[in-house]
Structure formats: C-alpha cells, structure tokens
Amino acid sequence: MTYSGSGLGLLSDERIDISERLIRSEEDGLKSLTDPVTGLGNLRRMKTKAEKLIEQRADDPAPFSLGLFNIDRFRPVNDLFGRKAGDEILSQVALRISAALPEDALLSRISGDMFGMVLPTCFFEKDADRVGNLLRDVFTAPFDLGERIVRMSASFGFCQHPFAGTTFDELYDKCESALYQARESGPGSVRVYTHQMAREMRQRTQMEQALRKAVAAREIEAHFQPIVHLQSKKVTGFECLARWTDAELGDVPPSDFIPIAEQAGFIDTLTKLLFEKAIRCAKEWPEDTFLSFNLSSVQLIDPTTAFAVLSMVQKMDFDPRRIEIEITETAMMSDPRTAAMIINEMRAVGMRVLLDDFGTGQSSLGRLRDFTFDKVKIDRSFIAALDETDEANHIVRAIVNMCQALHLSVIAEGIETAAHAAKLVELGCEEGQGYYFGRPANAQETLALFSQESVLRDGYLDCTTTANGCCGG
After folding, report:
1. Where do the domains of the chain lie?
2. Among the four 147, 429, 448, 465, which has the fewest Cβ within 10 Å?
3. What is the CATH number of domain 204-461?
4. What DSSP string runs through 113-182?
C-alpha cells in the first residue's frame, strides 16, 4: 500500500473509490427497499419500520396500527386497459394515499394491487376505522388515464399492536384477516381486527378442519330441489344443492361452508364429490329430466374446469345434454376471458349454461351481450315482491320479454305461494322453483318421487310430503 507523507491516510484516488462504493452500496440498499413502479417502500421496508417501533415500545407498549388495502376489481381494469395503465393507476393511488396519511406514517406497496401502512400515532380501533374511511373517500375521484377515466375503490383492514400481536408476522396475519373480512363485506369496506373477529376466525378454523374431514370421508350430501314447467305443470329437472351435517356443528348451511372450501383451496375436491353423487342419482331419473349444477367463482378462473366436468360426465356415462350449469355474474367477472372459454366449451358438448341471480349485478345486461347463455334465472328478490309492488311485476315482465327476444329461456326462483306461480304464468315465465313446489330432498327421497304418484298433484310436487331443506328455493 502507498502512504502519503508521514501520515497513514489513503491516497485521494483510493478515498474516492471507497466513497463511490459506499454510495453504490447505499443506492443498492435503497433499491432493495423500494417498489420500482410507485417509488414507495416495499414489504421489507414496512417490516423494518414496524419492527423498529415494536423495539422502541417494548418497555412501554404504546399502541400503533398496521393497515393493508387492496384495490377492488383491479385485475379486470388491468386486463382491459393494459399493464401500463395499471401501473399508472398504482402510481396515482400511491400519490393520493401518501398525501392523505399523517407525516409519520409509512405507505408501502406489497405486491400487485396490495398496499401496506404503518401508522405510529393511530392508537385505537376507532382511530384506525376513521383513517380507513378517510382513505376510502380518497378513491371517490376518478383516475385519469389520458383519454379515459376509470373509477376504483379499495377495501381496508387494520390491526393494533400489541393487542393483535407482538411481532410483525403476527400483526401482518391479523391485518390480512381484517382485510379478508372487508373484501367479503363488499367493495369499499373497512374492517379492524377485534376480539369478535378473533372469535370468528377461531370458529372458521374449527369449521374448516371439520369440513376437510367431511369431504375426505365423503360426508357432503347432494340434495335436490324440483324445477317445474309453469304452464304444463311438469317437473322438468332438479337443482343439486350441497348439504352438510356435522356431529358437533350440526346442520351447516352451504352459504357458510362453500366459501370456506373456496378460500381454503379444496372447493374442487368438494365439487367433484358432489357432482359424482348428483350424477349417480340423476342416472335413475327419467331421461327427459335434467340436472342443474352450480359452479363456483374459483372454478371459473381455472381453464381446465370444462375438461374436468366433461371427463366426469363421460366416466359415469351420463348424457351431457341433461346437464345445466349455473353460474353467477359475480363469479364470471374475476376472469371474464377464462369464464367465456369455459362456457363455450361446455355448450359445445350440449350442456346448457344458465346465468343465476339475474337482476342483482351491476351490469347484468352487459353479461347477456358478452357471454352466450341458454337460460336466465330471475333472482328471488323480484319474485318475493310480486304481490307487493307493481314495479316488481313490470321488471319481471321486462326480463321475460327481453329474454324471449334473445331466445333465452327464463326460470324464476324463490316461488313460495300459488299466487306467485299464477302471476309468473301470466307474465310469461316458463319455469320455476321454490318451496311451493318442494323443498330440497336427499337422493333417495327424490328418486322415490318418480314412483309415488300420490306425491304428484297435476305435475306439481306437494311440498308437504317432501323432505325439509333450507335455502336454494
């Protein structure tokens, strides 16, 4: 090494070289903590900030909050306008939220359309709820994409240290739980992790474990609710409905356990089990009686769904033309392209595809334009109001007339009275189902209906003689 004068200092060029390396090292460190799209910190920076707060408040654990939020329905917008437009929306979100947060807060982009926040002076649940509602309002102004503008919303989840956890990982998990609850409540919702939410999560875990065992043991049963031709009073088919009775939990409604199977990742196994049992029963029905079966939102984003359904039908030697597949508008919109492909593939082999819960979505008319269906099912909310308001009658008549013009069959669900049935015939509706015709019954009871003439009265199922069930009618 070369020395300068009598001192031990490095030569100037070596000092410059070390300075440049230190600068590059610092820049590399900043890059590793920074999201390249928005310029915000990333998950690593969020974790560093939170852990520093936890350490500072170890002796006197003053509360602080963590938050997560997702942009609602970001993926369809990204697919429609392109990745560049999606990145522009992310950048605008970063600017808006940063401006709305307190100066001591940290905003990070975690991944995709998920962002995280560390809020050092947000102490209590009510404070987090207030911040969430403030940030939700930030999304009300449209986002500018040059020649286009789009409107977005976001769902928020928060938790507090040390109530929800004493480590970053624990706090992050609780934030995710709160965010999940917010997204389940609908777009633009805010949820804070509370004692009640903690109890609900424990109950959900218990139910998930019990459901996994029930699926493995093939304990999920297929029940069937009759569908009739309203004019001729003939039973034309049955809708398959999942039923589960647990030794400890009792009768668990499908509205509780189906979402759990979807979120936990075993809805496909459950569906295959139910479909197999349904086909096995339907093979014993008259050949002109169809089986109606529901697909979940998870299955409508899986390109192999149609192949799996057809494989099951072929394996069990069942006529695909006797199958109607019911899907909801909400389920389709997670991945419209894949959903359209699945619909077309199933219709190509003779299956009929039905749009369920018609009238409840934001843009159901658009769905009829963009997708090819064979039948539309009018949501029960309109049927329940038939004898209450003239508006409901006009809406149902308009839906029927529109579907006839589009060469679509129409079925009404939720028919509970003779008056409802008569009114629907008058309005031109073709088919219907509901408690008036029969509650869901198990496979044996359903099969018995075809051999017991006393159960059929003018083609209608006598609901006093069918097995009690819940939901689906």
Report:
1. 1-28, 33-193, 204-461
2. 147
3. 3.20.20.450
4. TEEEEEETT--SHHHHHHHHHHHHHHTTSPEE-SS-EE---EEEEEEEETTS-SSHHHHHHHHHHHHHHH
